[in-house]
Design a protein that fits this description.
By secondary structure, the chain is α/β, with parallel strands linked by helices. It is built from eleven helices and eight strands. The two termini are 32 Å apart.
Length: 255
Amino acid sequence: MVLEQYLRDRLQHKDLLLMTHVVCGYPSFEDNWRELEIMADFGVDMVELQFPFSEPSADGPLFVKANQQAVADGVRPADCFEFMKKVSDHFPFKVLMMGYYNTAFKMGHASFIKRLSAAGGCGYILPDLPVEEAGELHQLSQSKELAPIVLMTPTNTDARLKILGAAAEGFIYAVARKGVTGGQTEMGDDLKAFISHCRAHSNLPIAVGFGVSQKADLDFLRGKADIAIIGTAALKAWEDGGEDTLRAFFSGLLD
């Protein structure tokens, strides 16, 4: 798989990779582009481009607001694919589609995969799609070398983790705690044990998200996980002060 090899190559030179997140069209595509320029300046390895959806069930209040505002502003999947193509052609990091299954369902699986590949995406994250119902989508993904990213959570049983590990490609998205995005996560023994538990069920790189927001979190994850996922904290920085605040946020994060 293209994505997995890219990550393994990057991990030869960095002890912890960074994946960030942008909600397409929020506050605007122009704002998105400036956010991505800053992320590229700080050497981000991957970015999730979230296709706005009216009911983003895995997201916390800030991302819910961003999704609903983008939908209200008329942002459509076609706009997101067009933007993704510009991003993937311009920036050095890899780009993934993040969203909800309704987008792929309404478009049709074959069309969704074809358009994602044509836009330069290397995979997708659909947190509301159970792996048992994803067979056709995953099969179509193989022909385009797109990675369906699987989420593992602390509430999964060993039997469930085994199923998830078998279905995963690219990397494992380890959800650091119960609940939605945006809350604080305690970086401690429970999370360390959960990351080890995920590794027992997959040989893929492990990415940790939900509540990763500061330098201390990245320091904790080094040597335990392979990828840190920064979402809400970066958007909050942008909302607090635009380019200067976002740049200061990444400077402090990676200092």
